[in-house]
């Protein structure tokens, strides 16, 4: 059995179980998959990101997964703020200045993709900080 998150032409979200992906295709093409809200048979699969799909596991809801992930990212942000010095947009410049000093305190700040790439080419270790996910109510 396979579960699909579906969306109808009116934008109603629902899910349905099928024996396999071919069975969904056949039933949808035959107009047998119907929106439970408005009865529309114009339905399609919702696009999901691999990360979200991969996070879904038996016995653990997506909400729990998201909350855990959020806690991990939050802890990472707190760690960085505690251990590293904030240098803001001067990040690339500061990273270069400190690159060859062993006692240099770690720093964090803002850098664009171009700056990150050139720092890496110079052999300077740069780690992107994942953005804090929005808190959902
Ligand atoms: Zn509908």
Report on the structure:
- The protein has five helices and five strands.
- By secondary structure, it is an alpha+beta fold.
- It folds into two domains: 2-47, no CATH class; 55-121, no CATH class.
- The chain has a three-stranded antiparallel sheet with strand order 2-1-3. A two-stranded parallel sheet has the order 4-5.
- The site of zinc ion has 7 residues, from loops.
Topology:
Elements: E1 2-8, E2 13-18, H1 21-29, E3 43-45, H2 50-55, H3 62-83, E4 85-88, H4 91-98, E5 107-109, H5 113-121
Parallel strand pairs: 4-5
Antiparallel strand pairs: 1-2, 1-3
The protein binds zinc ion (ZN).
Would you summarize the structure shown here?
The protein has 137 residues and is of the alpha+beta class. The protein is built from 5 helices and 5 strands, in the order E-E-H-E-H-H-E-H-E-H.
